[in-house]
Write a structure and sequence with these properties.
509 residues; alpha/beta; five-stranded mixed sheet; 25 helices; 49% helix; binds 2-acetamido-2-deoxy-beta-D-glucopyranose; Sulfotransferase; signal; P-loop_NTPase
Amino acid sequence: MPHGVPLWPLLLCFHLASTQVIANTRQLVSLLSEQFLTIKGNFSGLLDPQLLRYRLASAAAARHTARHAAAELDVAFCEAAPRMLETKTEWKSIDQFDFATHCCDPAKFDSLGHEKCFPEWPSWPVRICCAHHLSKPSYFKAAWKVLALSIFDDEVLEEDRPRPPVQNQVKGIMAYHKSGVTLSTELVGNVVPGPLTRLLLKDPEEKVMVPHDFHVTKFGDHNSPRGGRPVITPFFQAFTRTFSDLYTQDMIIHFSNPLKSREPQFQDFMRQGAGKLLHLVRRPSDMILSGYIYHRQNLTTGEEWLRFRNPPDCLSCDHEAWSDIFRLCGFRCSYSELLQNLTSQQGLQVEQLRSRWDILKMLENAHAWRDLDHVLQVPMESFRQDFNGTLLCIARFFFSRPVEDESADAPPEFRQFLEESQLHSPSFIESCRETLQRGGRCAAAPPGEDEAKFVYRATTHVAAKLEKKRLHAELRRTPGWRHFLPFADAALEATLQGSPTRRIFGCPG
Ligand SMILES: *[C@@H]1O[C@H](CO)[C@@H](O)[C@H](O)[C@H]1NC(C)=O
Ligand SMILES: *[C@@H]1O[C@H](CO)[C@@H](O)[C@H](O)[C@H]1NC(C)=O
Ligand SMILES: *[C@@H]1O[C@H](CO)[C@@H](O)[C@H](O)[C@H]1NC(C)=O
Ligand SMILES: *[C@@H]1O[C@H](CO)[C@@H](O)[C@H](O)[C@H]1NC(C)=O
């Protein structure tokens, strides 16, 4: 940091002067995070005095960061924030207080920070202060080392790992950003039940719910951290969608971007046997290629976080990555702008930083669940290689019909599921995209769906083969390739190969 620019006295000035300085709402709004405003939608109820003080501190942090193009703040600023807010309730004395552990620990708070240290989310101080405290030594590197050791050193499965009894009321589908959220949304259904929901539930409610919190019988409540605010409207992060059966009360829960949290999350209930879970995973290097191509587009619709500049956002990235990414533009650009301004090699390196925390969580979960009978892990590649075979193995898994029990013909409900799902096949969408690029038409929109919407998806969510090939070569020249990606790819492969569930239900590959 530029020495001699202590920030926290500035904070105190704001604290003392706050109510006089802020003469009107417009002046206040100009200091607020745009992401916060997007989430809140309007300005009423924003003037709570304690929060106002905090927001001003946040604005001071933002200005400091932008002015000095550095996120390495005076440590006193970060420690002053929780002290001023009298948040010492969880530790007995200030001597026991450790900022990284109590305010930032990603194993407890993911990328959100403790709400007592950072009452507002999203805000600049969460990112700035946590990046500062977690990067020396690097939290991410340490976490990756622990995971890699457990994957590569622990070849033999412990045969007597306790297997929980599994209930059958909940059927879960879980994916990460760029590991099949779009595809699984089509299969589960967005506003009306999709093919998979129609297969699994007798009488699905014709209505999707997006609850932040829900109750899983005998397992407890799933409460989203920060009251569901990590859910970025319209639902790109840590969302859940549910459909339920009116007769049996069975539920389908579609879950995206699981968070780590002190509170048990949906994935924790599932691991304990609350139901069967389809875990959609993807080869890390493909996640990065796909993420880079998608995030680099100058989209004016869709994922809002791509366009946030105050503070800039990289979705569920780790704090240290946030700091390393946005230092490149002096903390004055959005993620999408940054990618548009970088060469593809630089951009691919940035996308590796952005997605490494998701990749770590994905690999951790895949490894923890590798031998559980009630979790089926399916890589995205499988849908591309053998769409029908992959759908059949998913259907067999949810209906508990091992592959050898089945006669040569799939039952009629499975065949119907296949027929209804064809439009969502990645290779079909890809060919549709290629037709469009040649100036042809792709008129095969799903029944009841807008053709324009279908075509939009075909052009934004699926990358062209040639472009992917070129970018893959670029990816191999990035520093991340030397240090991280080949190991991450190998880790996923090792985990999937060790999974007996995939064999039992006849999954391809
Ligand atoms: C603004 O937010 C308040 C509280 O959340 C809500 O009651 C009110 O209807 C909102 N106003 C508008 C115009 O959306
Ligand atoms: C991105 O789109 C916006 C709005 O359409 C436009 O103003 C801006 O110039 C575009 N940026 C680039 C780099 O093309
Ligand atoms: C992108 O690069 C141009 C030219 O170097 C520069 O003027 C602009 O400020 C940059 N934008 C961002 C968001 O970094
Ligand atoms: C997949 O299943 C659908 C529906 O039964 C069928 O029309 C299609 O030909 C199958 N595709 C392949 C590659 O077998």
